[in-house]
Amino acid sequence: MGNPINTTGATLKSSIIHQNIPCTLVTGFLGSGKTTLINQLIADKSTDERWALLINEFGRIGIDAALVSSSQDSDSAQNNIAIREVSGGCICCTSQLPLQIAISRLLSDHHPQRLLIEPTGLAHPRELIRQLSAPHWQTALKMQAVITVLNALQWQREKYRAHEGFQAHIRDADVLVINRYAQLSTDDKQALQDWVAELNAQITIIWAESDDQTTINDISTSNDYSAVLSTQLTKPSQTISQQRTVNIAQPKKSVISLQPLSHSLSNKSLFNPSTNDNNIQADKDIELPYRYHEIQQDIVVAGWRLPADYILNADKLQDWLLTLPNWQRIKGVLHTSNGWLQINFTPDSLSTKTVSVQADSRLEIILQTSTGQEDAIEVKLDWEAYDHELMALIL
């Protein structure tokens, strides 16, 4: 684990307090396209510029870093991007210490010229802004414009437009990047802009590059998107400069189950001994195959890790995933009959991509409750049955 961390912050701050590193928050609701936007920013950066990326994952199995790193084409690009993950809950709701340690280590160990922070889609942007406006970060970090990503197909559905968490990302952004708008009519696009203006009249809207090569407000999205997006990295944040603070309600207590699994190739069976619900195992101590599930903020999150030599039937795996109840997000890096695949599913987009060999297979799903009643949905989900179904896909 290395040298112990001084939780008082004195040692950490002394090494980074004068660095004044440009820092950009990239926010957005679940499935909005934050990782895609970050990959776009990374693709457009100078190859000799050192960047650092802090990713906060709501679940306990780190996957997003693999989704980012696998999108980089060259070793030189990867060598100039340091990635660190903070998993197991929203950094806005949990103790500030994991956030402070992660940022401090990135700055002190890698000396980046720019820092990007991607909070989970269930984050409270205003609370994170408040944390990063604290005095001990004001000289270490030079906060730039807060960039929020909005999926226009999600916006078309009332359950998203009316969701407080969905709206919160727009309220506390300097820049809004709208993607997946090709199917919207001219009237729909205007209605979307009006809806955004009601939440945040000061926000700058950028329409992401679209497959239909649409021109909006006389700006060619295909030609100018990258350049316009990159300029946001050097614009100061009006939102953060105001240092707005609100009282954020504490999240409901999580219900957590951590399960080491044993696999029998002869009958595809699983054995799930009980473990202490509060015993969050270190990554290196997890015995594979492994599954966990938990409930946070009326969202059910579950994840599996499998040994690298477990090869899953690719076609049957996708069919099985799409039958899971009320799923909101599915992502993973998995060894399949089609090779190692990165999967990234939202209700309106199914993406798969070949990636390099990984140390193990990782899969994570987010299921949204329809009623908000934790006990009700927990009864409906038969995790042992899902274990058996997943393991039955092993060749």
UniProtKB/TrEMBL annotation:
One Pfam family per UniProt: cobW
Superkingdom, natural source: Bacteria
Any one Gene Ontology cellular component term annotated for this protein: cytoplasm
Gene3D superfamilies recorded: P-loop containing nucleotide triphosphate hydrolases
InterPro entries in the record: CobW/HypB/UreG_nucleotide-bd, P-loop_NTPase, Zinc-reg_GTPase_activator
Protein name in UniProt: Cobalamin synthesis protein, P47K
CobW/HypB/UreG nucleotide-binding domain mapped to chain residues: 22-205
